[in-house]
Specification:
By secondary structure, the protein is mainly alpha-helical. Helix content is 74%, strand content 0%.
Length: 94
Amino acid sequence: MGDDPTIGFLKADVARFCAGLDELAPAIRLRLLVQLRAALDEVTDAALDEGMAAAKAEGWGLRQIGGQVGLSHEKVRYRLAQAADEDEPAGEPS
């Protein structure tokens, strides 16, 4: 699967950021890379969960969603349930 051009631009931006760390002390460089990875994971995980929920709302099956995102249908079910629990207001029964 080829990269979408917008993904290519983002990848290049991340590569430039990482290249800019080359001159930093190793401890600072590693800390920034760990922070970058965590930030990217947070954003992409949330977007993936939202995308899977949208697909399910359109009638996609869990196996079909899993096939698109590279997860088992059980993992898709789990992530959708976790995301639904997080969206539920505190103190209100489901």
